[in-house]
Amino acid sequence: MKRPLEPSAEARGRVVGVTDGVFAIALTLIVLEIRVPSHEAVHSEGELLAAIAALAPRFLTYALSFLTLTIFWFGQQAQHGLIAKSDRRLATLNLCFLAFIALLPFSTDLLADFLKFRIAVVVYWLNLLMLGVTLLASWWYAEKNGFLAEGVDAETKRTVYLRIVKAQVLWAVGTALCLISPLLSIAFILLVQLIYAAAPRGSLLRKLIG
Amino acid sequence: MKRPLEPSAEARGRVVGVTDGVFAIALTLIVLEIRVPSHEAVHSEGELLAAIAALAPRFLTYALSFLTLTIFWFGQQAQHGLIAKSDRRLATLNLCFLAFIALLPFSTDLLADFLKFRIAVVVYWLNLLMLGVTLLASWWYAEKNGFLAEGVDAETKRTVYLRIVKAQVLWAVGTALCLISPLLSIAFILLVQLIYAAAPRGSLLRKLIG
Amino acid sequence: MKRPLEPSAEARGRVVGVTDGVFAIALTLIVLEIRVPSHEAVHSEGELLAAIAALAPRFLTYALSFLTLTIFWFGQQAQHGLIAKSDRRLATLNLCFLAFIALLPFSTDLLADFLKFRIAVVVYWLNLLMLGVTLLASWWYAEKNGFLAEGVDAETKRTVYLRIVKAQVLWAVGTALCLISPLLSIAFILLVQLIYAAAPRGSLLRKLIG
Amino acid sequence: MKRPLEPSAEARGRVVGVTDGVFAIALTLIVLEIRVPSHEAVHSEGELLAAIAALAPRFLTYALSFLTLTIFWFGQQAQHGLIAKSDRRLATLNLCFLAFIALLPFSTDLLADFLKFRIAVVVYWLNLLMLGVTLLASWWYAEKNGFLAEGVDAETKRTVYLRIVKAQVLWAVGTALCLISPLLSIAFILLVQLIYAAAPRGSLLRKLIG
What we know:
Distance between the termini of chain A: 47 Å
Structural class of chain A: mainly alpha
Largest sheet of chain A: none
Helix content of chain A: over 70%
Largest interface: A-B, 37 and 41 residues
Oligomer: homotetramer
Number of domains of chain A: 1
Order of helices and strands of chain A: HHHHHHHH
Number of helices of chain A: 8
Strand content of chain A: under 5%
């Protein structure tokens, strides 16, 4: 007898489909806020160059959010690669994670518009925090309900938890720096994302941040 | 001999592809209406905090629509998991369902903009109603034409019907509450969606709403 | 020895992925033009109802474009189901088809904004025409290069050609009606799309339009 | 024992999913800038025709970007078809490539708005350059780490490199022409894209541009 929405490999496939769709859209939406300079304000090559240069904060926050999306895409993928099947509840947790991915373009725009405001940094951090919380909840739920793939041992389980927690600690530290200066916060968080995205595995930097 | 568009498993796969695409876009579009406060109106941290707090209704209706999309994503998936193949007509019914999913960001924005207007609640409800109608029609058509997977028994068939009808009754009741107050309607519908999305299967609450 | 971009089943799969993505986006984009009434202009339930009623032409053209997208989605799928593999050139023809699918929200908006202008009808028709031309070219190219699946006989080949041509003839007739009245054109085209999407196969209406 | 994010075929599949999503969105976004003429400015069929004709530069740059997206979609696909598996670093390179694909609608709009400005041509070229650089880096990394599929011989490897380099040389030459006239640059680049997309393999034109 077949029942609707039993835990299955197909349900897992659907989650992957929606996830990659939301990430593709989020990656593209953050670019939409990089607006072409208005024709009225530009009358010479010099003015156009200046207008494009004035977009620099947008490109900076685009790079930041692009890196953040990359890191969470891998985070979701790292988990999902170790999960063999999905039920409705696990899929709901995954959709909650996606809801905060979908909010990232908003947080990013807020940051780009209010680079020197602490509140903007805090909102961005809350977004990062909720992404971590939903990832952590998914992993905890999948483990508790026996949805993990065979061959996932205790050490791997711990690694997944540790990675999420370490990243969150770093972002919390970065956010706390906004007490000194919001720009310092952004620089710190950008540096962390860069190391996650690009530092060679096994390198000193990578070991430091986990 | 091969004929174009015979009922097939590939047709079923294409429907899944477009469905997940539309859901991914709808999930992201409803966020687009959460606009970053204008730079001109904000001169201090306090003003920025107030401007973000003023976005609260948007976040509320975002949460509402996110839950609604989640519920219908599972609804579509629950059906589709029990359907073995699809012909052109069934795919058309599915696309009609998607047409109303695509309208959900509009209904949501309308609700967020006109929180205290009964018409906005009624339009939102009509959207929910049409989603139920198209789901019901798909299931009825698939059953009548023998597209259901093997092992789908009479009880499962009835369960699928009952779930759709029960949810519609609850939403109709919620909408009727707008005769008292539109905000009461929204609170009631939000509560229903929360229970569907998060209440443990077998819990009292879940049994109450079916 | 492996060469880049040899005709393959994977190339066919990628075309399907991009196609379903573009259709999902187009289906959602045409809704974006249905804008929530401005808060300033609405002070009572009656005014909100009137403002929503004023959106009627948008809903009409949304329905029209939704039906059109449905028809071409099936058109592309009917062809693709009979094609076993794809090379770069066939994929390019498919992307050209998608370029005109992506233009459909523009043509639709133009029609909705200028319901009583012949030029708007002609632009919409040109879009439909180019969709037919690219579909026809794909089929002709796939047939000529032996990319059709086994078991596709001469009659099926002819059927595919005939369907495209018949639909184009009907749309051309519908467009010609704009010499009498643009609204008559739109009504005629809408009727044709409705019959394609919903009339039972084998019914008199269906036989009439092929 | 299973470790998170080991090089795998599934990781490769996820990259394809996100890639096709971003391309589908980019293809559709460049159309969004083709805006329907304002109702206020149009009172007769003649004025509507004139307003649509005034959109010609938009259609030109749409065609240009569509061709460019097509070429890079095939570029990515040509590489990916020869790569058997993907690790996190290769996927990151692919996402960097996608970040520049997502920027293409911006560069295109800039070009359409400032057709006669050299800076706009240079920005467009920088976008093309970065797309080439990220593709080149992906290929180099996949080759160095043994991720290529079996049967990829030295000649095929060289072909992939050569194609990227030749296209970049042509675009650099085209961009240099903006010293004479930006419109000449655009015409030259458009011609190159047309030949890549449509000239028969083995034809004289194709041999000339490699």
